[in-house]
Amino acid sequence: MPSTVYAFPTTDALSGGLNTFVEKLSREAIADHGSFSVAVSGGSLPKLLSKELVNNKQVDFSKWHVFWADERCVGLDHADSNYLELKKTLLDQVNVPASQVHTINSKYAVEKNAAASADDYEQQLKGFFGSNLPSFDLILLGMGPDGHCCSLFPGHPLLEEHSRWVAPITDSPKPPPERITLTYPVVNNAKNVAFVTAGEGKQEMVQKIIEQPELRLPCQRVQSINNGPVYWFVDEAAAGRLEKKLVSKF
Ligand SMILES: O=C1O[C@H](COP(=O)(O)O)[C@@H](O)[C@H](O)[C@H]1O
Predict the structure, then answer these.
(1) Which 8-state DSSP code applies to residue 147?
(2) Which of 38, 57, 119, 157 has the most CB atoms around it within 10 Å of its CB?
(3) Which residue's alpha carbon is at the smallest distance from atom 2 of ligand 1?
(4) Which residue intervals define the domain Glucosamine/galactosamine-6-phosphate isomerase in the entry (predicted)?
C-alpha cells in the first residue's frame, strides 16, 4: 500500500496533527486491549511529538508502554541518548509509570556493548509481547537526510536482518557508532507506522522516498505486512518538492 502523506503549513501545525493522530490510536488501543505500546525514535522526533501531546489531558498515559525504535549505546543521562530527549520533552511531564518505560540497559550501554544491549532489549520485548513477533500499536520514526530510519542505514547489512528483533550496530555512519535498532520484521509488523520529519534539509530525501520507491532506501523498506498505510507527517518545508497529488488532507 502506498504511503499516506500529510503535509502541514508549519512544524507547530504538524505537532498538532500528530497529537490528534496519537491520541486517537492510544484511545483505540486502550479500549481494545487495555494498553498502548509505542516505539519512538530519537533525533528531531521527540520535540515534534511532544510539543502538543505533553499538554493533552485526553490521553491516558498511565496505560502507555514506551519503547525505542533505536537507541545509542550511551548512558541514559548522556546528551546523545534518545531516551533522554523524550524524557525531557514528554516523560517528565506525563504519568507513564517508570516500569512501563522500556529503556536500553544502561550498564551495557555505558560499556558501549551493543551486542549485549541488543540481546537485553530483545528480552525486554519478549517480556512484554511474549514469544510472538511484536506488534506495536504504533511506531514513530524519524528520517535522516540520507534516508535512514531507526539505526538502519543505506547499504548496511542490517537492512537484510530477518531473524533478530533487535540488532546491534557498531559502525553507524552517524555518531555514536554503537547502537541498537529494531529490525524490519518488527517495524513492518506494527499496527501503525508513522514517519515524522520537518525542514527544508529533508525536502530532497522526502521527494525521493515518496516518488522513487525503486531506490529501496531504508525508509522505503518500511512496509506494513498487514497492508496498512505508512503515514508521513511532514511540514511544508519538507514536502516542498512533492507532487501535490501525493499529499493527503489530514
Ligand atoms: O541518529 C538518529 O537519527 C534519526 C534521524 O534523526 P533526525 O534528527 O534527522 O530527525 C533518528 O530517527 C534516529 O532515531 C536517531 O537515532
Answers:
(1) S
(2) 38
(3) 43
(4) 10-231
Is the minimum distance from the CB of 46 to ligand 1 under 6 angstroms?
no
Q: Using the 8-state DSSP alphabet, how is residue 43 labeled?
A: T
The counts of H helices and E strands in the chain are 8, 10
Q: What contacts 119, CB < 8 A, 6 or more positions away?
A: 166
CB of residue 147 inside a 6 A radius of ligand 1:
no
Instruction: Show the CA angle centred on residue 47, arms to residues 12 and 229, nearest 5°.
Output: 75
pTM: 0.98
Residue 85 C-alpha cell reads as 530527549
Q: Which domains are delineated in the chain?
A: 4-248 (3.40.50.1360)
CA of 41 to the centre of ligand 1 (A): 7
218 lines ligand 1 (CB under 6 A): no
Q: Give CA–CA dist 176/183, Å, rounded.
A: 19
For 93, how many CA atoms within 13 A lie in the half-sphere containing its CB? Answer: 14
pLDDT in tens, 7-28: 999 999 999 999 999 999 999 9
pLDDT digits 0-9 by tens, 103-148 = 999 999 999 999 999 999 999 999 999 999 999 999 999 999 999 9
Main-chain phi, psi angles of 109, to 5 degrees: -65, -45
The closest residue, in CA terms, to atom 16 on ligand 1 is 42
Does any ligand 1 atom lie closer than 6 A to the CB of residue 47? no
